[in-house]
Amino acid sequence: MEDLKFTIEEKEIAELLGRQNYSSKESAIFELVKNCYDAASNICNIYIDKNCIKIVDDGSGMNSEDIRSSWMHVGKSSKGYKDSDSDRVLAGSKGVGRFALARLGDRIQVSSKKENEKAVIWKTDWITNSLREAIVDFNKGTVIELNNLRDHWKRKDVDKLIDFLSRSYKGSEMKINIDFEGGSDQVISVFNDVEIGKNYTNQILLSYDSENMKLTVTINSDEFNPEVQKIIGSISQTHYEDEFNMVNELNLNTEEFEHYQEYLKELGEFTAELYFGMEKVPLEMSEKFKYKYNNLTTKDTKIILYRNAFSISSLDGTKDWLDIASRARKSPAAATHQTGSWRVRLNQIYGFVQIDKITNANLKDLGNRQGLEEDDYYQLFKDIISFGISRFEKHRQSIIRKIDESTTNIKHKKNERKNINDFLKKPSTVTQMTEKEISSLAQEIKDIQREAKEQSKAREESEQQHKYDVRILNVLATQGLRASAIAHELHNKRNSLESGYRDIVNALEEYGFWEELKSEKYTRVTYKNVPKILDGLEEINRKLIAFIDVILNKIEKEKFSTKIDSIESALNRVIDTWKKEYDWLNFEINIKNQMPEKYKISKDVLEVIFDNLILNSIQHNEMKDLLIIKMEVEKVGDMLEFKYFDNGKGLDEKYISDPKRILEVHETSRSDGHGLGMWIVSNTLRMYGGEVIDINSEKGFNIYFSIKG
């Protein structure tokens, strides 16, 4: 058998691995900078003029054997994890980075020298190559000269390169300098001089512990004036820290997702440092929310992914690889929204995520080096970071909500504007006012203008909140209408559904087949067991009939207008619909001081609240033989106070420390859940002047809430 080897055309390889593999001239130079770093160089000087680019380093250099065995060997890399002498984690590993030269120029000369060895010069035009010994004027290092450049370099191109490298290189071991037209610029990391109060107001630190599958989220904030602390009470305005179990938070704690738990461990530990800031805030908003800073200068980058000292191509802060904008579009609620989830906007957050070449080896480069493979590891990686960002969003929104509530509740006294009231009653009095009174009048007019702007802003926010709620409810309503259309069609065939099973059995008995079909001979094979199949169909028919009754009952017009006159009767109507299909439910009602009167709420309101609570109890306790649900009601003034309890498993572990988190939109502990049920409960209560008072998991699930009755 003959051994064969590929024959490779150098010019074609240069085209493929050089010109096509590097999408821009900046990325090609970046690849050569990484080579300087891997050579343990202390400096990387890049000289650019119209006809030539020269890249100089003082690294370890190469000899003739290195050129022959490594440099000229395509796909071979002698680089491991770390350089033992410099202790640097090496950036290269594929053995193709040298082809970045082909992206930049047609004629290349590489002069290189190892310490105490002879220097060599390698030349190529990508058709022929030559190597010779030479005398050079440096002790060790490498000088790359590129001629017949493929690009015209102007000042704006050099500035673009400096910006690119400032985002792509975060190390401090090697200095990068760029010389162009007699001027010299040092490349400094974009994150080198970020300052709180100048470039950001909130620092978000994420630290993932893969061994324990836990994420620690730390927030350091200086966004608000000190007086805010009195408004927000127990919430700290300057610091937040908590630890989260990612198995629970990503809903991977079921058998179906067991393999993902291994992925969480194999993903490896990593960290992130993110910055939040709003560049320009309108003065009235700044005053209302008591922002400490305005006119921030945020960094012109997005979130960058670094593997050790260098960014990963296409994840270098130019693209929204974490889908920040998409998250904001899906949840457009303002931070003041009382039930919707605020999401940070793309222009408000930047920073970096730090991974390691070995620790995070499962985050693999694409073959074309333009990013990472978007496999399960990558998706989990993104999900963990997104979850960390969501904790910041929740923390900040809790502060904004309280500030908004406090400013909304401030009432202006009538006598506060005495000057303007006097002026409006008799405009001519302005000529008799003292200078102090005129100044006071002017201030009152400014206050009115400011309040008008605030009210306009409040109306705008209210409209946005309404649109956000309506979007979700419209989806649910549309699904409900589709279900009701099907229910109407099935209702016309109700007789067949109710009697179909009995009609078939009667016919089989009449023809003398039934007893024979029930015999062991014909019931041995499950899928041929006619009586068992018919029993299953009868069960399905019963559920379909119940479905029809529930759907058609819920959309009766009178439910939306009829006020209830008995809380107990209204609750019993809700309970009856559930007991028909769930015989393992046991309900107890305790009405403490019901008075015979017309209540302000209609039937549909109570049904929405308790249907969602009962459904929540059922879905979380499907394996329980007997689920006891207790409802207690007490009238306190013009409010109805409810206590709802079930003896199930209670809150999921991730909600124990923050129970009211279950009220947030799309918050769920079930992998197939939509996270809308408890949000609808909370939203409904707020619409009718109530609120959720407390939630706990003592001996089951407990929720206390009020509503205007």
Commentary on this structure:
By secondary structure, this protein is of the alpha+beta class. It has 4 domains: 10-186, Heat Shock Protein 90 (2-Layer Sandwich); 202-401, no CATH class; 432-491; 560-708, Histidine kinase-like ATPase, C-terminal domain (Heat Shock Protein 90, 2-Layer Sandwich), CATH 3.30.565.10. The protein has 20 helices and 20 strands. It has helices spanning 10-19, 25-38, 64-71, 100-104, 155-168, 228-232, 246-249, 258-266, 283-288, 324-330, 376-408, 418-425, 435-491, 494-510, 514-518, 520-523, 530-554, 567-579, 603-620, 677-687; strands at residues 43-48, 52-57, 105-113, 119-124, 129-134, 141-149, 175-180, 183-186, 202-209, 214-221, 239-245, 270-276, 303-307, 310-316, 349-355, 585-591, 627-636, 639-646, 691-696, 701-708. The strands form 3 sheets. It has an 8-stranded mixed sheet. Strands 11-10-9-12-15-13-14 form a 7-stranded mixed sheet, with helices on both faces. A hairpin with a 2-residue loop joins β13 (303-307) and β14. The chain is flat. The termini are far apart. Residues 411-415 have low confidence and may be disordered.
